[in-house]
Amino acid sequence: MDMxxxxxxxxxxxxxxxxxxxWHDHRILLASGLVLSVLAIIVRRRRAARITLRxxxxxxxxxxxxxxxxxxxxxxxxxxxxxxxxxxxxxTSGQARKPRPAAARVVTGRKPVSSRGHTSPQRQTNxxxxxxxxxxxxxTGTTEQLSKKVAAELESLATTQSPxxxxxxxxxxxxxxxxxxxxxxxxxxxxQNVRYFYLLLIPSYxxxxxxxxxxxxxxxxxxxxxxxxxxxxxxxxxxxxxxxxREGWPTEERGFCSQAVEVDRWxxxxxxxxxxxxxxxxxxxxxxxxxxxxxxxxxxDVLQELSVSGTLGDGVPGSGxxxxxxxxxxxxxxxxxxxxxxxxxxxxxxxxxxxTDVEDVGGKSAPxxxxxxKYSTTSTSAPVPLKAMVPRESPTHAALTKQGYTIVGTHxxxxxxxxxxxxxxxxxxxxxxxxxxxxxxxCMETTPSLSCSNKCVFCWRHGTNxxxxxxxWQVDDPKxxxxxxxxxxxxxxxxxxxxxxxxxxRFEEAxxxxxxxxxxxxxxxxxxxxxxxxGLLHGERISSFLVCNAQHPQxxxxxxxxxxxxxxxxxSNRDSLRKIDRPLHxxxxxxxxxxxxxxxxxxxxxxTVFRLTLVKGFNVEDEVEGYADLVAKGLxxxxxxxxxxxxxxxxxxxxxxxxxxxxxxEEVVAFVEALNTALAKRGLEYGIAAEHAHSCCALIASxxxxxxxxxxxxxxxxxFFALLQGGQDFKPEDYxxxxxxxxxxxxxxxxxxxxxxxxxxxxxEATKADEVARGRKTKTGTVxxxxxxxxxx
Length: 793
Prior knowledge:
The chain is α/β, with parallel strands linked by helices.
């Protein structure tokens, strides 16, 4: 049958109908086959990719290559292997693999420390520099001289080795320990290009010095839960050299270089075992020069190696450990071994074992202020007998005695100042005569505590007195201190009877003490029985002028009435106070403000004085407003403003203090006037009352003492003792007298009963002397400036 041109569409339709019928009859079987084929192709491709990755293992091969070529740290290599191994396991999904002998364990939590305890070498990828920092502490000057010699050798090395920078030398007494021994040094240099190397030259003493504070700081830093146990691990390395005396302490166990040994152990912990060179020991009476030379040479070799390789290299088991092991091949349990250090002879330092936990203080209705710089000494063992603060055979005793102090008992002292000598010769008294009516030849300057909690840059005690945050010595009886102070004072007065110019009537008057300045050196309020001592003074009708540094609020709050209470306000803000006073307490600013609150509360009970010591470059520029705020906070009766006195010693220069920091009197006058204006802006009723230009000092007084338009800053001492013995409450205004005309602001403050002399002892014309003293303009228009030079308390 001929279908013609219409046959093709019919045939196509017939085939489509047959295919559709077949699909409906077999669609389930065909769909299953298609899906299985696609799945088989996918599985085969994934399996092929997995086998290729397993055969190549780029991550593992790279890790193995790094371990062989770079010598990476074991822990770092294990971590890299762990990551790669986990990733491969996920891809292979259970396929059998050839076991690897060094397969890494999957660990969580804190990264384990290498059991061998040595630091593996690391390749120095980028050029870097080494900055040696030399730290020392010295009372007699021996260690300071040695540190300079070591620095000179390192400087010579730096000239030949470009990666090694010129060394920097620091006295531990004049730095903030937080800046160097909590983290790496705070510097402007790039942390990526500069690595630091510590050299510590440590003497040993059997008395309390800055080294005790330094050791306590290292202890606290390591055991503080808020800080990493090894915060100095970023250092390139460290080494320690000890200076001691084998004649008194023959072995390390019996005290020879014991403090250097302890510093070395703490540094091993804090740096995570980066002792770069063995602990050096030198005997000041035999081999100190040779030992220092050999130690310095070894350190120079280490620095050269560090500058090339950038690493301390491999070490045997136990290298860098804090405590020496008796077994040569004993695997160490880790660098962080917190076993107690063995005590060392006469210089045994009490263990600061258990800190008070805030949560353990219960049963109190109000929050308890915790002093984190104090430590509990609770122990089940027998109590350790308390030692003397300043033993007679100690370097501190010798240094203070050489400076003219008479040491009373174990922690007190007495000395006469240059104004006492001046008053005996009728050449003028200090500013206390102009402000408060105290003739200097009737005043005894003493302290029941030679220890202080600050290291002020302007301290003229040459940094030889002990420092501490807590009282940890034996306590002498107040009566013994009182009698010893009077005896020492009278002996020094008697030594003046042969001096030309001493007036007989004043010499006789000086043999009856009328006033006591509790300052001199240290922190008098630190003495645990200060109230008893003040009571002895008042019992003999001796007025009490007590000075404190606003660092002991509890003792200040417990203090009973004194004739006048001084608080040193050396800065207007936290940063300036830290730079000037360099307090040992970490919560120094909180303590400071707490003391101001106490003074405000006691302003109608105690006659309070803020004493501002102006140091150019530290606390003069742009701090007037801050000082005004502090006055508004404490509301003292008086504010003394005095230019700093430069003591002219090498220790002052170490603290960064020179004659350039001493203000001229005209600068003090400008500051006083600016402060008075700032107080007036705050609505505070104060005014400039008096001055003593020769001490570079001026007095701002509360208007409470402006009675009938006249200033009453002088103390009526007879009235004070009458009120004190009467037992009734009284205010500071109840025992004041009118300020003499010659002491008022603008009159210079020189007592006309005395005679003005020049440096050669020749009399001066009164009118001209007044102009010079006040630093005001003379008739010729010339400004004559006078710098402070009075050694006042």
